[in-house]
Amino acid sequence: MVEQKAKAPLKEEPTDVLTLDYNNLAAEVVGNETGLSNDDFARMKAALSLAFKDVESRYRKGLLPFMDLPHDQEIVKATRKLAELGRKKKFENVVVLGIGGSALGASAVFTAVKALNHNELPQNKRNGWPRLIVADNVDPEGFATILDGLDLKNAFFNVISKSGATAETMSQFMVVYDQLQRTLGRSAIRDHLLVTTDPENGVLRKIVAANDFASLPVPPQVGGRFSVFTAVGLAPLAMVGVNVPELLAGAAKAVEDSHKPVAGNKAYLFAGLNYILTTEKKRGVLVMMPYADSLAKVADWFGQLWNESLGKATRLDGAPNPHCQTSIKALGVTDQHSQLQMYMEGTEDKSVCFLGVENYRQNVNIPPIFKEHEELSYLGGHSLGELINFERQGTARALAENGRPNFSLTTPKITAFNVGYLLQTLEIATVVSGSLYNIDPLDQPGVELGKKFTYGLMGRESYSSFKEKFNKGLSVKKKYIVA
Ligand code: PA5
Question: Mind listing the domains of the chain with CATH numbers?
Answer without folding.
Answer: 19-61+260-437 (3.40.50.10490), 72-242 (3.40.50.10490), 445-480 (no CATH)
